[in-house]
Specification:
This protein has helices at residues 3-20, 24-29, 37-54, 121-133, 148-166, 172-211, and strands at 86-88, 104-107, 114-117. The protein has 212 residues and is mainly alpha-helical. A three-stranded antiparallel β-sheet has the order 1-3-2, with helices on one face. Helix 1 crosses helix 5.
Length: 212
Protein backbone atom coordinates (compact mmCIF):
# COMPACT_ATOMS: atom_id res chain seq x y z
CA UNK A 1 0.00 0.00 0.00
CA UNK A 2 1.34 3.48 -0.86
CA UNK A 3 1.86 6.14 1.83
CA UNK A 4 -1.05 8.24 0.61
CA UNK A 5 -3.33 5.21 0.35
CA UNK A 6 -2.45 4.04 3.85
CA UNK A 7 -3.15 7.44 5.36
CA UNK A 8 -6.40 7.70 3.39
CA UNK A 9 -7.65 4.27 4.44
CA UNK A 10 -6.98 4.75 8.14
CA UNK A 11 -8.38 8.27 8.23
CA UNK A 12 -11.54 7.14 6.44
CA UNK A 13 -11.79 4.28 8.91
CA UNK A 14 -12.09 6.74 11.78
CA UNK A 15 -14.51 9.02 9.94
CA UNK A 16 -16.76 6.24 8.73
CA UNK A 17 -16.99 4.50 12.08
CA UNK A 18 -17.93 7.80 13.70
CA UNK A 19 -20.58 8.53 11.08
CA UNK A 20 -22.13 5.06 11.32
CA UNK A 21 -22.06 5.06 15.15
CA UNK A 22 -20.50 1.63 15.32
CA UNK A 23 -17.49 2.36 17.50
CA UNK A 24 -17.69 1.35 21.13
CA UNK A 25 -16.58 4.78 22.33
CA UNK A 26 -19.20 6.40 20.07
CA UNK A 27 -21.89 4.33 21.77
CA UNK A 28 -20.92 5.66 25.17
CA UNK A 29 -20.21 9.32 24.35
CA UNK A 30 -22.31 10.46 21.39
CA UNK A 31 -25.79 10.90 22.82
CA UNK A 32 -26.92 12.91 19.79
CA UNK A 33 -26.54 9.90 17.49
CA UNK A 34 -27.14 6.98 19.83
CA UNK A 35 -30.02 7.79 22.17
CA UNK A 36 -30.92 4.35 23.47
CA UNK A 37 -29.55 0.88 24.07
CA UNK A 38 -31.85 -0.39 21.32
CA UNK A 39 -30.37 2.01 18.76
CA UNK A 40 -26.90 0.89 19.76
CA UNK A 41 -27.81 -2.77 19.34
CA UNK A 42 -29.57 -2.08 16.02
CA UNK A 43 -26.54 -0.17 14.75
CA UNK A 44 -24.17 -3.02 15.56
CA UNK A 45 -26.58 -5.54 14.06
CA UNK A 46 -26.85 -3.48 10.87
CA UNK A 47 -23.08 -3.27 10.47
CA UNK A 48 -22.65 -7.00 11.04
CA UNK A 49 -25.20 -7.60 8.29
CA UNK A 50 -23.19 -5.34 6.00
CA UNK A 51 -20.07 -7.36 6.81
CA UNK A 52 -21.75 -10.58 5.72
CA UNK A 53 -23.02 -9.00 2.48
CA UNK A 54 -19.51 -7.87 1.62
CA UNK A 55 -17.69 -11.02 2.77
CA UNK A 56 -19.78 -14.14 3.62
CA UNK A 57 -16.98 -15.52 5.81
CA UNK A 58 -17.66 -12.72 8.30
CA UNK A 59 -20.94 -14.37 9.31
CA UNK A 60 -18.79 -16.34 11.75
CA UNK A 61 -19.21 -15.72 15.48
CA UNK A 62 -15.45 -15.18 15.60
CA UNK A 63 -15.69 -12.16 13.28
CA UNK A 64 -18.71 -10.40 14.80
CA UNK A 65 -18.29 -6.68 15.39
CA UNK A 66 -17.19 -5.42 17.82
CA UNK A 67 -14.48 -8.08 18.08
CA UNK A 68 -12.91 -8.38 21.50
CA UNK A 69 -10.51 -11.27 22.07
CA UNK A 70 -7.23 -11.42 23.98
CA UNK A 71 -4.84 -12.76 21.35
CA UNK A 72 -4.42 -14.09 17.84
CA UNK A 73 -3.93 -17.84 17.50
CA UNK A 74 -0.95 -19.34 15.71
CA UNK A 75 -2.04 -20.92 12.39
CA UNK A 76 -0.19 -24.10 13.35
CA UNK A 77 -2.33 -24.59 16.46
CA UNK A 78 -6.02 -25.03 17.27
CA UNK A 79 -8.77 -22.88 18.75
CA UNK A 80 -10.09 -23.34 22.29
CA UNK A 81 -12.94 -25.29 20.68
CA UNK A 82 -10.46 -27.70 19.11
CA UNK A 83 -10.83 -26.40 15.55
CA UNK A 84 -7.65 -26.40 13.43
CA UNK A 85 -6.45 -22.89 12.63
CA UNK A 86 -5.43 -23.99 9.15
CA UNK A 87 -7.05 -26.31 6.62
CA UNK A 88 -4.94 -27.08 3.56
CA UNK A 89 -6.30 -26.11 0.15
CA UNK A 90 -5.58 -26.87 -3.48
CA UNK A 91 -2.31 -25.17 -4.48
CA UNK A 92 -3.67 -24.64 -7.98
CA UNK A 93 -6.86 -22.94 -6.87
CA UNK A 94 -7.48 -19.29 -7.74
CA UNK A 95 -7.55 -17.08 -4.63
CA UNK A 96 -10.60 -15.27 -6.00
CA UNK A 97 -12.55 -18.42 -6.89
CA UNK A 98 -12.96 -20.85 -4.01
CA UNK A 99 -15.61 -22.25 -1.74
CA UNK A 100 -16.54 -20.61 1.56
CA UNK A 101 -15.65 -22.55 4.71
CA UNK A 102 -17.39 -21.07 7.73
CA UNK A 103 -15.00 -19.55 10.30
CA UNK A 104 -12.16 -19.46 7.76
CA UNK A 105 -10.72 -17.25 5.01
CA UNK A 106 -8.98 -18.75 2.01
CA UNK A 107 -5.51 -17.46 1.17
CA UNK A 108 -1.77 -17.71 1.65
CA UNK A 109 0.26 -17.70 4.85
CA UNK A 110 2.98 -19.46 6.82
CA UNK A 111 1.17 -22.79 6.48
CA UNK A 112 0.82 -22.48 2.72
CA UNK A 113 -2.29 -22.09 0.60
CA UNK A 114 -5.55 -22.93 2.33
CA UNK A 115 -8.15 -21.79 4.84
CA UNK A 116 -6.98 -19.68 7.79
CA UNK A 117 -9.20 -19.45 10.84
CA UNK A 118 -10.72 -16.07 11.69
CA UNK A 119 -8.87 -16.18 15.01
CA UNK A 120 -5.60 -15.84 13.07
CA UNK A 121 -4.43 -12.50 11.78
CA UNK A 122 -3.54 -14.18 8.48
CA UNK A 123 -7.25 -14.53 7.76
CA UNK A 124 -7.71 -10.76 7.78
CA UNK A 125 -4.53 -10.09 5.83
CA UNK A 126 -5.88 -12.32 3.06
CA UNK A 127 -9.41 -10.98 3.29
CA UNK A 128 -8.20 -7.39 3.08
CA UNK A 129 -6.23 -8.22 -0.04
CA UNK A 130 -9.32 -9.77 -1.59
CA UNK A 131 -11.52 -6.80 -0.73
CA UNK A 132 -8.93 -4.48 -2.25
CA UNK A 133 -9.22 -6.26 -5.58
CA UNK A 134 -12.99 -6.74 -5.60
CA UNK A 135 -14.19 -3.24 -4.71
CA UNK A 136 -17.38 -2.11 -6.50
CA UNK A 137 -17.34 0.91 -8.78
CA UNK A 138 -17.54 4.25 -6.92
CA UNK A 139 -20.93 6.02 -7.06
CA UNK A 140 -19.55 8.65 -9.46
CA UNK A 141 -19.06 5.97 -12.13
CA UNK A 142 -22.70 5.62 -13.14
CA UNK A 143 -21.70 4.22 -16.52
CA UNK A 144 -20.12 1.29 -14.65
CA UNK A 145 -23.16 0.74 -12.47
CA UNK A 146 -21.70 2.38 -9.37
CA UNK A 147 -23.96 2.27 -6.31
CA UNK A 148 -23.38 4.60 -3.36
CA UNK A 149 -24.83 2.02 -0.96
CA UNK A 150 -22.72 -0.89 -2.21
CA UNK A 151 -19.59 1.23 -2.41
CA UNK A 152 -20.08 2.66 1.09
CA UNK A 153 -20.74 -0.72 2.66
CA UNK A 154 -17.71 -2.25 0.98
CA UNK A 155 -15.43 0.58 2.09
CA UNK A 156 -16.72 0.46 5.66
CA UNK A 157 -16.17 -3.29 5.98
CA UNK A 158 -12.81 -3.14 4.20
CA UNK A 159 -11.58 -0.51 6.65
CA UNK A 160 -12.48 -2.65 9.66
CA UNK A 161 -10.81 -5.69 8.06
CA UNK A 162 -7.71 -3.57 7.38
CA UNK A 163 -7.58 -2.49 11.03
CA UNK A 164 -7.78 -6.10 12.15
CA UNK A 165 -5.06 -7.13 9.71
CA UNK A 166 -2.52 -4.86 11.43
CA UNK A 167 -3.77 -5.15 15.00
CA UNK A 168 -1.57 -6.78 17.67
CA UNK A 169 -4.64 -8.54 19.11
CA UNK A 170 -8.14 -9.40 17.78
CA UNK A 171 -9.88 -6.45 19.43
CA UNK A 172 -11.59 -3.79 17.28
CA UNK A 173 -10.89 -0.98 19.71
CA UNK A 174 -7.19 -1.86 19.79
CA UNK A 175 -7.26 -2.37 16.01
CA UNK A 176 -8.66 1.11 15.48
CA UNK A 177 -5.89 2.58 17.64
CA UNK A 178 -3.26 0.59 15.73
CA UNK A 179 -4.55 1.97 12.43
CA UNK A 180 -4.58 5.49 13.82
CA UNK A 181 -1.02 5.16 15.13
CA UNK A 182 0.17 3.75 11.80
CA UNK A 183 -1.46 6.58 9.88
CA UNK A 184 0.21 9.15 12.13
CA UNK A 185 3.54 7.36 11.80
CA UNK A 186 3.30 7.24 8.01
CA UNK A 187 2.35 10.90 7.87
CA UNK A 188 5.30 11.80 10.13
CA UNK A 189 7.71 9.70 8.03
CA UNK A 190 6.45 11.46 4.91
CA UNK A 191 6.90 14.85 6.56
CA UNK A 192 10.43 13.98 7.72
CA UNK A 193 11.31 12.67 4.27
CA UNK A 194 10.06 15.86 2.66
CA UNK A 195 12.10 17.96 5.06
CA UNK A 196 15.23 15.90 4.34
CA UNK A 197 14.65 16.26 0.62
CA UNK A 198 14.28 20.01 0.96
CA UNK A 199 17.48 20.14 3.04
CA UNK A 200 19.40 18.21 0.38
CA UNK A 201 18.09 20.47 -2.37
CA UNK A 202 18.91 23.56 -0.31
CA UNK A 203 22.43 22.33 0.37
CA UNK A 204 22.99 21.60 -3.32
CA UNK A 205 21.80 25.08 -4.31
CA UNK A 206 24.06 26.67 -1.74
CA UNK A 207 27.03 24.66 -3.02
CA UNK A 208 26.30 25.79 -6.60
CA UNK A 209 26.17 29.44 -5.51
CA UNK A 210 29.46 29.19 -3.60
CA UNK A 211 31.24 27.59 -6.54
CA UNK A 212 30.03 30.16 -9.04
Amino acid sequence: MSISASVLVTRKTLDREEQNCIREDTFSTNSNKITSQKEMVDSVKSFNQQMVRVAPELASKYAAYPMKHKQWINPASSTVDGEPCFVAGNSGENLQNHGVLMDYVYGRGPMGLGYYHLMTREAYVNLYGRLQSTAPSPPCCFCLGGSAKDYGEHRGVKDVVYNRSISPIPDDKVARKAAQDKAQGVAQDWHNGLQNEQLVVGTAITAIHLSS
